[in-house]
């Protein structure tokens, strides 16, 4: 377990491409469907309850939120995708912001794709998986809310996802994750450590 993440603090929210911070620190980004548990995962990984804002309302994360681990490392929370009730113009704005960030950010080292273990591998997830594969961007999947399933069901879902990734010839790695039980935090830290150069 890397205690450095405990020092993480919020830096800024970015709504426009032109306001992105300088590409100074290595970055690891978190993406996922609205309400998949991105903010909860970031809080668990940083051992803080209120670092990333949690909402029961899907689509609350509307900006790129930057969190500094230290001077050389940053975590980035991307807007959740797939929220049908968001106005079309707003969805297009989010999508354009995410696409620009993922395709142009030279200091981006990897992407944590957060999925609710009860609803893994949606069409949106596959689009992002395929994009990362095509652009050689390292990707690791957190199957969140693993505590919502029995251990047997959670293991079975993990194995199904692994088989689907192999069938797609994806290089992505995957794990179970539960903020409630703090399950999978150390494994996720190991991935982040490798990306961010700890």
Characterize the structure shown.
The protein is an alpha/beta fold and 198 residues long. The protein has a single domain, classed as P-loop containing nucleotide triphosphate hydrolases (Rossmann fold), CATH 3.40.50.300. It has five helices and seven strands; from the N terminus they run E-E-H-E-E-H-E-H-E-H-E-H. A seven-stranded mixed beta sheet has the order 1-3-4-2-5-6-7, sandwiched between helices. Strand 3 (64-70) and strand 4 form a beta hairpin. The longest helix has 17 residues, at 88-104. 36% of the residues are buried. The mean pLDDT is 92.
- Spatially, the strands of the biggest sheet line up as 1-3-4-2-5-6-7
CATH topology, what is it called?
Answer: Rossmann fold
Poorly predicted regions: none
CATH class: Alpha Beta
Radius of gyration: 16 Å
Strand content: 15-25%
Tertiary shape: globular
- Please provide the count of β strands: 7
Quickly give the structural class: alpha/beta
Integer tally of domains = 1
- The biggest beta sheet, please? 7 strands, mixed
Mean pLDDT: 92
The CATH homologous superfamily is termed P-loop containing nucleotide triphosphate hydrolases
Number of DSSP helices? 5
Secondary structure: helix percent: 25-40%
The CA-CA distance between the termini, in Å, is 12 Å
The succession of helices and strands, N to C, reads EEHEEHEHEHEH
């Amino acid at each position: 377990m890397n205690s450095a993440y405990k020092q993480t603090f919020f830096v800024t929210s970015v709504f426009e491409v032109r306001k992105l911070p300088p590409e100074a620190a290595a970055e690891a980004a978190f993406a996922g469907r609205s309400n998949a548990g991105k903010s909860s995962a970031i809080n668990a990984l940083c051992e803080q309850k209120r670092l990333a804002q949690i909402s029961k309302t899907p689509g609350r994360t509307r900006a790129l939120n930057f969190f500094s681990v230290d001077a050389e490392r940053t975590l980035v929370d991307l807007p959740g995708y797939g929220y049908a009730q968001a106005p079309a113009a707003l969805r297009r704005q989010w999508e354009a912001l995410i696409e620009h960030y993922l395709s142009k950010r030279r200091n981006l080292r990897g992407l944590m794709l957060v999925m609710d273990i009860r609803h893994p591998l949606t069409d949106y997830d596959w689009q992002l998986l395929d994009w990362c594969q095509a652009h050689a961007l390292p990707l690791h999947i957190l199957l969140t809310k693993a505590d919502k399933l029995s251990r047997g069901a959670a293991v079975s879902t993990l194995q199904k996802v692994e088989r689907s990734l192999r069938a797609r010839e994806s290089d992505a790695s995957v794990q179970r994750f539960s903020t409630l039980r703090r399950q999978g935090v150390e494994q996720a830290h190991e991935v982040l450590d490798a990306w961010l150069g700890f």
